[in-house]
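Dear U.,

Please find below the material for section 3 of the report. The protein was modelled together with coenzyme A; I have listed the sequence and SMILES used, followed by the predicted complex structure.
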Amino acid sequence: MAASIKPKTQIRLMQYDDIEEISLIDKDSYIYPWSKGIFRDCLLADYYNQVIEIEKTIVGYSVMTINTEGAHILNLCIEKNHRGNGLARRLIYSMIFHTQINNKNKIMLEVRVSNIKAISLYKSLGFYSVGIRQKYYRGISEREDALLLNKKI
Ligand SMILES: CC(C)(COP(=O)(O)OP(=O)(O)OC[C@H]1O[C@@H](n2cnc3c(N)ncnc32)[C@H](O)[C@@H]1OP(=O)(O)O)[C@@H](O)C(=O)NCCC(=O)NCCS
């Protein structure tokens, strides 16, 4: 029987050259995508910026900062055709590990209250709701609230 070859998935740090590719995924995923300048600023600021690749093609990314309060996830996104395969979960595990090795005991993030998929993903990893930031996000007809989630490390 022929052995099946598993496609190689790897996580690595984001580089400036990745911004074009990442920006396409971002535009295809969000109503209000980030500009390329925002991604550049995140690299300049030396945030914890990751990409996840399958066979050297970028299929997702994440951006997280670390400050005195703890870690803050600012973006997490997987290309539409690659969702539902545990890739976001892998990026989050890596962010949790990075938070641990930086001796921080909390990760926080905001997520649109309508983003059921992301909320269920975060909750499955031990994030819990600590509040609502009212009218935090732009929306088509009106602004949308953000659910504020924390995870203790
Ligand atoms: C949210 C997002 C990052 C999830 O990425 P993903 O790689 O598909 O997620 P995973 O495959 O790692 O899913 C893990 C968990 O997410 C949840 N999830 C994923 N797809 C789901 C769906 N269609 N419905 C409900 N829950 C879902 C489940 O809890 C799932 O766990 P399970 O596989 O054990 O059931 C992805 O949908 C995305 O990029 N969305 C657009 C950008 C975005 O909204 N980012 C989040 C901003 S805070």
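For the text of the report, you could mention the following: Helices lie at 19-29, 36-44, 87-101, 116-124.

Regards,
Y.
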